[in-house]
Design brief:
This protein is of the alpha+beta class and 1103 residues long. It is 51% helix and 13% strand.
């Protein structure tokens, strides 16, 4: 069978093309051919080739880079084992290398290959394949796995490795192929170390197992690959000059460091040999030049360098066991401490890690110097907000140095961790736990905090086991409080890390950590099962435990500080569960005046300490607003001028000159919440709000007016009822985005009505001309504002040599004006030519747009905000998509309980309509469903409308059109219906409906018709009290009667009835929907009773 050698060659065929390789399809096809051999030939015909085919298939099974090829080879081997029965050890191998086992590449190289190589028939073939095909593979991961596999396979054939493989690899290690050089150096290191470990079992050294030529070649590899010797600048291929440019060269340097590590661990007899000086120089030079290496391999090189240094020191820098070479000790420690001051961040990282990896005998007598260097770098760089990664590595190094030095209560601070230096170590680590440095990458200080938490745990366990007496109660308290703070914060990963460490220290018994504050209470909050069952990453689980720490005085401040950034954060799940747990705790102490007072004092203390810290102050204001809105301090509102409110108001006043919009908005919300407190403080709160009505930022003025309007609706005892309507009208109708002179007039009127002294305008020495610029904005008119009464003035010159665009319109008989933009005089001509288009935008009835204006932008998405209670949308020739945000004009808790109802036009087509909530779409209406005109209702919390155009090849007229209305939210089966719920009206509801419903009429039911989705009640009206729109048609001038149709949900089961009824209800999309409909005689009786008791909400003419 001349084809067998070709098939065996095809099983390992691979050809590099650019950055990847081809050949997997060839190898897969070869596996299929081998599979077919089992079915096509008798065992005796295939017997001469069994060993070759079996070895080739197993090599592909465990060493192929492509998982499909590995599985195909495994299947072919299994088929041959089953049908031929001549493959050596077939059943055992098939069991170990099945379809699922070969799916993991690391498992194949490191485990399955070792099992297969234990059968002598396959050992050398596998080793030869790794040396020939995988050591020089183009994929670095394959090269590294191959070297580790050779390490694991060495015990199967140690002599073969020492006498054949190693001499074969050494020339490759200094060859011109960088891939082969990288793999060969790693393989030499791994095989040498494996031979050393084998020699330990037979009391032989490694030099007894390998030839002297190999030893010399290993010793001099670093010179032949272009690594400079100490004191020289030898430039070889892949040498120093190429280090910044070629990633592969960086691999070579890390590989040589790995070789140094393995040769040192193998106890090569190089002590006092000049090669040690070269190796040390290479390690030091790599640390100094890490910044020149491309970022993709820096971490790997750092790990290799640190491991090499540790092994080198351990083997070659001891004069006697446990006694350091004093000269090298002085040189290395001084050099690395000096490296902590380098302007290069990576040099600082490398120096810190180098100090951390030094063996104990190198640290002895230098501990004080090392700790001072690391602590100084942490303190200075944290203050400057730079070198974050270096601080992280320095914090890790502090713990490593302390663990290696050991603990002795009465020991020397220059040799061990003792009572003299333990406070300094903990001080640095605890300060690092408060590192909140941020840069363009985000919260990079979290890396330092995570390292500090781990280091605190390591040092604490060490000290507790050896000398617990040096841990003072104050140190342990500070440590536990810092961990509690981190366990309450918003980032899941670091909260989980802190929580797990907190539980580890709390439940540690051997050794037990002394002086933990409130240990018994903590154990009751966190029983031992929480160490395994509590998922700190889940806010729903973590916060219900951590908020219980608020009841422990020593933990309250730090826990509340951590909760502040969680409750006032922006992540929905974190905010929800943290605030829920916090309010649950506060509800539990409402009857405990002392506990609530202490909580308030802690809250004020946090506020004072973080007034200038935006990371805390803005979330704090948001959290405080939620507390005030939920009545968490209701017990304080019964006392006039309570100290908590007075101090809180004083602190909030510090923000009124801030320029941060989010901070000002949060502050406004807090001011409105403080209005619930009694006494003189209420006047001061009103004064602050009235000053904000004339803030230089128009958005702040508008927000203040909106919040004040909502505040007066919520707290109706704030002002005199006689002026309440006037105040509410002015707050809602005035244009608070107008110029300051106009706004100030409105504000002063409010001051007079509210009995607050008018704020005095402070003249400024210089005022920026650009301070009154208002950005041009699109005005979308609410329903009921006639477009014919609105006009746009032509541009006119302004006093500061700008052209002003001014819009005027009339509403409810009152003329309004607004400046909507400014441009420079030289652009006046361009503005006049396009003014007509801009006028069209301003005069739109609700929202109307055309896809023809977006020609060529079929993938554009436009945001539209409709802020009226009802209106309509028209989109001609839709292309791309629009997001329609239906929001009320005022922001309030009540607004969150609204529902949106939309009714598509019968001609509506060309789009699909979705609900968009945080990027997740839910289909609401398909294109074919819109023509049915069925009303769809949904909660305003379910998101915005995402209207996406459906691609069409024709140019026929398409229009997407619908009406919308904002209605009060409803629950139950009627939640998605426009109609009223089917339930009897109470007496109070009946009286209120007559005063507030859209229509009120007296009459008879003529007939009831059952339609597809509702019932239609035809009525004849004898007395029409009120109708919002003309839903009932008059029978004529001389006939005092009206007729009309009132709809009801089909499930209500309405029937015709005799007698006269009083019909009330609402008008939705021009259709009347039934509300309360009592018999008129029952209503009269009820109304007269209410009239006698003085409880009727309004007057109704019943004559």
């Amino acid at each position: 069978m001349r084809i067998v050698p070709l098939i065996i060659k095809s099983l390992t065929y691979e050809e590099k093309r650019g950055a990847c390789s081809v050949g997997s399809n060839v190898r897969d096809a070869a596996c299929y051919v081998c599979w077919s051999f089992a079915r096509a030939y008798e065992p005796k015909e295939l017997k001469p080739f069994v060993t070759q085919i079996a070895s080739a298939l197993l090599i592909t099974t465990v060493f192929d880079r492509n998982v499909n090829c590995r599985r195909a080879a495994s299947a072919a081997f299994q088929e041959n084992v089953g049908r031929q029965g001549t493959f050596p050890h077939g059943i055992d191998i098939v069991t170990a290398a099945d379809y699922y086992a070969v799916g993991n590449l690391s498992n194949c190289y490191l485990n399955i290959s070792v099992y297969i190589a234990s059968f002598p028939e396959y050992t050398k073939a596998m080793v030869d394949h790794l040396v020939a095909m995988k050591i020089n593979h183009w994929d670095g991961m394959i090269r590294e796995l191959a070297t580790k596999a050779l390490h694991n396979l060495t015990p199967q054939a140690p002599d073969y490795m020492a006498t054949n493989v190693l001499p074969q690899l050494l020339p490759m290690a200094v060859g011109i192929d960088l891939h082969g050089r990288h793999g060969a150096i790693l393989a030499c290191a791994e095989i040498t170390h494996a031979l050393y470990k084998l020699g330990l079992q037979t009391n032989r050294t490694v030099v007894e197992l390998i030839s002297s030529e190999c030893v010399d070649a290993l010793k001099n590899i670093h010179q032949k690959v272009g690594v400079p010797q100490a004191g020289k600048k030898k430039l070889g291929f892949g040498g120093e000059l190429m280090r910044p440019a070629i990633d592969m060269t960086s691999y070579i340097f890390s590989t040589v460091c790995s070789l140094i590590e393995k040769l040192s661990l193998s106890k090569m007899p190089f002590k006092n040999n000049p090669v040690i000086t070269d190796w040390q120089w290479l390690i030091d030079d790599t640390i100094k030049t890490l910044h020149l290496i491309s970022s993709g391999v820096k971490d790997a090189i750092m790990v290799a360098v640190v491991s090499a240094l540790s092994a080198l020191c351990e083997e070659y820098y001891q004069t006697e066991p446990g006694q350091a070479d004093s000269q090298m000790q002085d040189v290395l420690v001084s050099q690395y401490i000096e490296g902590l001051k380098s302007p290069q961040m990576l040099t600082r990282c490398g120096s810190a890690l180098a100090l951390g990896c030094l063996p104990r005998f190198m640290i002895c007598s230098k501990l004080k110097q090392i700790l001072e260097g690391l602590q100084h770098m942490c303190a200075v760089s944290q203050k400057e907000g730079s070198f974050t990664e270096a601080r992280r590595d320095a914090v890790r190094a502090i713990a490593q140095v302390c663990v290696k030095a050991g603990v002795c209560a009465s020991g020397s601070p220059d040799s061990t961790l003792c009572s003299e230096n333990v406070a300094g170590v903990y001080g640095t680590l605890l300060n690092s736990m408060n590192d909140y440095t941020t840069d363009s990458r985000g919260d990079v200080g979290a890396w330092v905090r995570e390292a500090a938490m781990t280091s605190v745990m390591d040092v604490t366990i060490l000290v507790s086991s050896s000398a617990p007496e040096i841990l003072s109660p104050e140190l342990v308290k500070s440590m536990m409080c810092c961990l509690a703070q981190q366990a309450a914060e918003k980032i899941d990963r670091y909260r989980a890390h802190a929580g797990n460490i907190l539980l580890c220290l709390l439940h540690s018994t051997e050794p037990a950590v002394p002086h933990i504050p409130h240990r018994e209470e903590l154990l009751s909050i966190f029983p031992v099962e929480t160490t395994t069952n509590l998922n700190w990453n889940a806010p729903s689980q973590a916060y219900q435990y951590i908020t219980q720490l608020l009841g422990l005085p020593q933990y309250q401040c730090h826990t509340l500080l951590g909760l502040t950034v969680s409750v006032g954060g922006i992540t929905e799940s974190t905010v929800h569960f943290s605030s829920q747990s916090l309010f649950e705790y506060l509800r539990g102490i409402q009857d405990n005046s002392a506990a609530l007072t202490q909580f308030g004092d802690t809250l004020l203390s946090i506020f004072k300490d973080n007034l200038r810290n935006d990371r805390v102050s803005i979330p704090f204001l948001k959290m405080l607003n939620q507390m005030l809105a939920n009545g968490c301090f209701e017990i304080f509102t019964t006392q006039e001028n309570h100290q908590f409110c007075v101090e809180l108001l004083t602190l909030c006043k510090e923000f009124k000159k801030a320029k941060d919009i989010s901070k000002l908005r949060a502050c406004i919300a807090v001011f409105c919440g403080l209005i619930q407190f009694q006494g003189e403080v209420r006047k001061k709160v009103l004064s602050q709000l009235l000053m904000l009505l004339c803030h230089s930022f128009p958005v702040i003025r508008k927000t203040t007016a909106s919040q004040m309007y909502e505040m007066l609706l919520t707290y109706d005892d704030v002002i005199d009822p006689e002026v309440l309507d006037d105040v509410m009208t002015l707050l809602s109708d005035a244009n608070w985005e107008s110029d300051l002179a106009t706004v100030r007039t409105h504000r002063n009127q409010l001051c007079d009505w509210l009995g607050v002294a008018r704020p005095q305008v402070v003249a400024k020495a210089r005022e920026s001309r650009s301070s009154d610029k208002t950005p041009m904005k699109r005005v979308l008119r609410c329903a009921g504002e006639p477009a014919s009464q609105q006009k746009v003035h032509m541009p006119r010159e302004h006093s500061d040599r700008q052209v002003v665009i001014w819009t005027e319109y009339s509403m409810d008989g009152v003329q309004h004006g607004r400046e909507v933009g400014k441009v420079s005089p030289e652009k006046k001509g361009i503005l006049e030519s396009s003014l007509q288009l801009m006028s069209a935008d301003i005069l739109l009835p609700s929202f109307s747009s055309s896809g023809l204006t977006h020609e060529g932008h079929a993938r554009d998405v436009e945001q539209v905000y409709l802020r009226c209670s009802q209106g309509s949308l028209e989109w001609l020739y839709p292309t791309g998509a629009i997001i329609v945000n239906l929001r009320p004009n005022t922001v309030s808790p009540a607004a969150a309980r609204l529902s949106v109802c939309i009714k598509p036009s019968a001609e509506s087509r060309g789009t699909n309509i979705y609900l968009d909530r945080n990027g997740k779409l839910r289909l609401l209406l398909r294109e074919p469903d819109q023509a049915r005109g069925k009303v769809q209702c949904f909660s305003i919390q379910e998101g915005a409308l995402f209207i996406e155009a459906v691609p069409h090849m024709d140019i026929s007229r398409r229009i997407t059109a619908f009406q919308y209305e904002l209605v009060s939210d409803r629950v139950g089966p009627e939640a998605h219906s426009v109609g009223a719920p089917c339930q009897p009206c109470s007496d109070a509801e009946m009286l209120l409906a007559v005063c507030t419903n859209d229509f009120v009429a007296r009459g008879n039911i003529r007939k009831v018709e059952q339609e597809e989705e509702h019932s239609s009640v035809t009525v004849q009206i004898s007395r029409l009290y009120r109708q919002k729109t003309q839903v009932f048609v008059s029978g004529g001038v001389r006939v005092r009667s009206w007729t009309g149709h009132i709809k009801m949900p089909l499930q209500c089961g309405v029937r015709s009835g005799e007698g006269e009824f009083l019909f009330t209800g609402t008008v939705r999309f021009g259709e009347a929907w039934m509300g309360c409909a009592p018999r008129y005689k029952d209503f009269l009786r009820l109304y007269h009773e209410a009239q006698q008791q003085g409880t009727n909400p309004c007057h109704v003419d019943t004559d």
